[in-house]
Amino acid sequence: MGKYIIKRVALGLLSIFIVATITFCLMNLVPGGPFVAEKSISKAAQEALNAKYGLDKPFLQRYLTYMSDLLKGDMGLSLKQRGRTVSDIIFSKLPVSMRLAGVAVAVSLLVGIPLGCLSAYNRGKLADNFIIVLATCGIAIPSFITSVILLYTFGSKLQLLPTIGLNTLSSYIMPVTALSVYPTAYITRLMRSSLLDVMGQDYIRTARAKGLGNFKILFKHAIRNAILPVITYVGPMLASLMTGSFVVEKIFTIPGLGREFVSAITNRDYTMIMGTTILLATFIIIANVIVDILYKIIDPRINLK
Amino acid sequence: MSEKLLEIKDERLSFFTPAGEVKALNGVTLSMDEGEVLGIVGESGSGKSVTAYSVMGLTAYPGRLIGGTIRFNGHQIDTMTEKEFRKIRGNEVSIIFQDPMTSLNPVYSIGNQIEESILLHTDKTKAEAKERSKELLELVGINEPEKRLKQYPHELSGGMRQRVMIAIALACEPKLLIADEPTTALDVTIQAQILELMQELRKKLGMSIIMITHDLGVVASMCEKIAVMYAGHIVEYGTADEIFYSPKHEYTKGLIKSIPKLNAEEKERLVPIEGQPVDLLNPPAGCPFAPRCASCMKICLREMPPKTELSDTHYSHCWLLQKEEFEKGGAEE
Fold it and tell me: What is the ipTM of this complex?
């Protein structure tokens, strides 16, 4: 196991290096630059800015400088948010997004797994059909629609919940709901189909033949076998939610990281683009390693090599 | 007469599928004494497994008992609730399934799966259950039981897993062991070992066994009584000798003729039973075997033949036998 983790970390670092390189190249291939579009700046000022941030140097040199800085843990200054370093911005906003994502994922799991089980257990009956319809809607409706409906109903009409920020406990309700609708629906469907598959397995019949009750069969024998697809899905999902959701953060005015991803690209804030991309890649790699380890713990047949 | 261990009377069971009612069992009557080994033979879909599963209340959805009575070890099975079934399953009656490769839960250790049964039905503590599991593994001929208990199903071979399944089945010393084609998925040498083991355990523990199979060789070597099933009916019942040396039903005769013989001439062909198994959605009015029977008469297509008693232990349902009886009776008068 220890050996495996070391190997995965090494591979992960390599992946991050590749992601960084590709992003750096693509970013520079796109026409324009951080200071090009702004008409009010004179040519001389533009050149001065380029020189200040090292943008006047040849591509290869810039790449090497960035990479060696990155190795030292320095992601550079933001080109657009004057005076702030990229790590500064990321670490001030990441906790907000992570809190929101953590709650949303917990809600998705706590709602999705039981709903999926309920649906599989009542296969073909009214409850099953009802849950399936709900889950299909949940997958089909994008989060900005959910957000707007929630905002209109509970924020504006009924005035029950705060519409801005994440300052009180109740202010979590709407953004968490909006964020977790899709994953909940997806987990419900995954859990249902996977549980139906497992319930038809021979070892479930063996468990019944032993005289075990439905409850024990479900919780001991079925769920542990059926949960693997859910874990596979949740790992990367958690990683991408933790780095923030642009839509939901924008609508509920939450100072999270999601907005930075989009604005970095539209602003051509080169260092910010690099920073956010590397962060997302790192999270996804970590999530995948954790998923693999969980796999091994749940299913002894899986061999981590 | 003392009470039989198992007594099934006129059992009728159907599967209510979207296509209609599939009549899986059409009046099965069967009884078993304690310590007896009964073989149930017949082709796929003849109702062998369904009969045995219904004793444990394991009939799969959408199957339902629609008539008849089943008594087992003092329990009235046909009126039992799921909760009552749970007390006897794995305790008084156990089952071994066909495919040991998939019958054990892959994510739990062997020890865990044996102990589970013991802890469920007895008051033993965890340590005692572990001790008992070790004994059971030794009993079914698994070496290094201590080590095996910690292993997972995927680390064992097919024959070994079937031994583990037997150990689980025997955990609470059941009165009746149902073996549903226990050797079909195993290769020939392992088959022989498993059958030998079952014989040995039966002698040691004195339980009854229902052996479900379509392998006539298996029943010949194991069973005292044999029930031949066809389309949800027991068409012939008798001791192993009676079935093998003087089969009376045309279907049984066909089955025995279709066994390959070691001393056969080189170019001799196997004799198959012509035709297709009956469609249980629309079973024929008369004898279900009539459409495939070489000696079919008019009455066979119209009416189900009644039981013809051939000896105390041997009976069959066939109009030909009725005709013989009638002619014999006429001659005596």
Answer: 0.87
